[in-house]
Amino acid sequence: SALALLVLARLKEIGLQPFVDMSIEPGSNWRDFLKERIDASDYVVLLLGQKTLESQVTQQEIIWAAQGGKVIIPIWHNGFQYRSSDWKLMPDIDRLLSDTHTIIVQTESAGGYNAALTELANRFGFTP
Known about the structure:
By secondary structure, the chain is mostly helical. It has helices at residues 2-13, 30-39, 56-67, 91-99, 110-123; strands at 43-48, 71-76, 103-104. The longest helix is centred in the C-terminal third of the chain and has 14 residues, at 110-123.
């Protein structure tokens, strides 16, 4: 998504080495690749839009991150709001999404994205 590319660019800009799952090489076992990348990370930025949690792969990535003790930073966009009653998720995922402080893109605009990405950069100790 455009937001994922903006997150990638902003994190690179502040000197981090982010990973977006677009870089999986053809012929690779993508599940193993994703798990290895999550295992090697300290943080997982979770972009949540209206349908993101419908993906079993996304749910598996959340489980891997939680099991690995990673800091999970959810970012809600496109009007997404997490409510337990709207989803039938594993209790561990539900608890994580219910209890974790979230960055919210208030408006789908340059200003809204910039505010959210500034908050994300601040989480890593960088201030624009």
